[in-house]
Amino acid sequence: MSTATATSAPASMESFAALFEESLEHQEMRQGEVITAEIVGIDHNFVTVNAGLKSESLIPVEEFKNDLGEIEAKVGDFVSVAIESIEDGFGATKLSRERAKKLAAWLDLEAAMNEGRIVTGMVQGKVKGGLTVLVGGLRAFLPGSLVDMRPVKDTTPYEYKEMEFKVIKLDRKRNNVVVSRRAVLEETMGADREAMMENLKEGSIVKGVVKNITDYGAFVDLGGIDGLLHITDMAWRRVKHPSEVVHVGQELEAKILRYDTEKNRVSLGIKQLGDDPWVGIARRYPQGTRMFGKVANLTDYGAFVEIEEGIEGLVHVSEMDWTNKNVSPSKIVQLGDEVEVMVLDIDEDKRRISLGMKQCKSNPWEDFSMNHKKGDKVSGAIKSITDFGVFIGLPGGIDGLVHLSDLSWNVPGEEAVRNFRKGQDVEAVVLGIDLERERISLGIKQLEGDPLTSFATGHEKGSIVKGTIKTVEAKGATVQLDSDMEGYLRASEVSRDRVEDMRSHFKEGDEIEAMIINVDRKNRVINLSIKAKDMTEQDSAMKKFAAESAAAASGSTNLGALLKAKLDNKNAE
Prior knowledge:
The protein has helices at 13-26, 97-115, 181-199, 281-284, 364-371, 413-416, 451-458, 530-572, and strands spanning 34-42, 46-50, 57-60, 78-85, 94-96, 118-127, 130-135, 138-143, 162-171, 176-180, 205-213, 217-221, 226-230, 251-260, 265-269, 290-299, 302-308, 311-316, 338-347, 352-356, 377-385, 389-394, 398-403, 425-434, 439-443, 464-472, 476-480, 486-490, 511-520, 525-529.
């Protein structure tokens, strides 16, 4: 205990009293001086002391109480007191026990700082930038950076605990005391630290205690030096936060992965204490292997499934379901779900495994292909209508596409699609099945025969047809034919004479006759020609006229011969 603490009277009161009387002769009676006094009385309000002055002095009893309110003195004790004033006007000298205790505490702290001695104090509570500590009755400041070897975010565990400190700064005038716990730790751990550092080597197994956790790892006290256990070295599996694996105060074993002697940095690993599960994984799980695993993590692009301790594979969202390819993975599986997966690919070097869930189920595209062939009729409800066609729902949750061009033989797709609505039940013909691209092509117009084929069968090239001008433009006209078919008459096919503008020769509603000069099945166009019809008719007329003329000429010669013969016969008679 410091000099501010009361001293019990020795066994030989006479000898001590004699010494006390002798000391009184040498005590300097100056303001602020600390002298020795004997307690001669105690009541509820004051403690009476004899300091060898003209009269006894009264000191408030509160100055003799401890933190629990107990009086730490008794009659006969000799204590140190400070002179506050001499001759206060009533012939008494004012003394203070509290001031003597504080002065003694200051002297003790000054000596402790000069000697580098460790002092004990009680941590009181938080203040801006650190904590307050009660040391020898004086309040000291403990900066947050000096609480421990490393910065501490939460100082709550240190509050209201008795700890050891070193005094690093004193200013009695400003009543300022600064202490450091870190200095004590560095000193006490110095010997252990050096011994530990001498034995540190990469690959060795060490024991330690987790002292702090961050988002990227945990700091482990190895006994004199801290090591960093990075989050990636905690487990072979994916770890979201270090708190999943370790907690503050936990004792653990770890392997030294790297030791930088210049920077005194130690990198630790606990997953390296066991065998690397990735070694030989391709042999354990050949491509196509099916197994069950647990969903360990969900992302926007898929789900990570743990297939064994420390081994996770990615099921990409495109490999989750045969039909739902652009949905959120969380709508298909949840964390902790047990799912069946198939190994699609393993890259041991990059430690990546590609898994599939849909491969463990029957492929609806293959099922459809096995049960349907080109030309088969199918039916279903319209799932959606787009700018390029109509999607029809088929068995197995898949869709088939009817392209705009396959909706109608005669009506343009952009117009024909207006006759359909979502949810409508329709029938269609299978036009093609592409398993690799997972596409099924359907047609609605193919439910009926091609009217162009039927028309062409009854109207060969060179046939003469009648029609009505439906639309007319400068370079041509559309002609409505029988059987709901249309033909096209170009300006160059109207006459042998050059036609600059069809509109000067025809108008909508005009009746015409023309010859079929070509049936373009690919572009579904029947090409017409009035010029070809007229030329053919003209050629036919000329041929007929020539034939008739020849016949007439031949008939005249025969008649003359007959008349001549008759005349000759008459003359002979």
